[in-house]
Amino acid sequence: MTRLLLFNKPFGVLSQFTDRGSPTVRSTLSDFIEVKGVYPAGRLDRDSEGLLLLCDDGRLQARIADPRYKMAKTYLVQVEGEPQAPMLERLRQGVRLNDGMTLPAAIAQIEAPDLWPREPPIRQRKSVADSWLKITIREGRNRQVRRMTAAVGLPTLRLVRWSIGDWSVAGIAPGAFEVSSVDKGLSFR
Length: 189
Description:
Elements (H helix, E strand, L loop, with lengths): L3 E6 L29 E2 L8 E7 L2 H8 L7 E8 L4 H9 L2 E2 L2 E2 L4 E5 L19 E8 L6 H8 L4 E9 L2 E2 L8 E3 L10
Parallel strand pairs: 3-9
Antiparallel strand pairs: 1-3, 1-11, 2-3, 4-8, 4-9, 5-6, 7-8, 9-10
């Protein structure tokens, strides 16, 4: 039977079990997950938080992570600045990055979500407003959401992956994981 873990990756944790070659000790998945034989299905940057799926089935890992299956990934993103309608429209239509155009994204400006505190906290500046966006993409380029928001003049301050397919981090504390049903989140386009 396939094992699938939904892990709420804290800020500063690498999306791998070892940290080879670093002169400093950095936190890895092995600091939180003692389940043997599971591996990340995709990645989440060290400075991002939220849902990371891990499983013991290579075919399922590939299906979750492979961009050709266009599995929806939803992020809650705190940005610096106040989004204007043309900025949001550019994100919806696709943004030109140095590695080409992104696919269209689902974008909504939202109220600040009720999330766990981040350690270290986000630097607050009295003279610069911040806002929250809910962004759903169907690609998986390196640091894509951060590059997209920066391209329209809204640098990312905090990025939380909230869901992949139907799997969500809702109710899972940072650094904790839950075991989930494999068929629950398999809604591919």
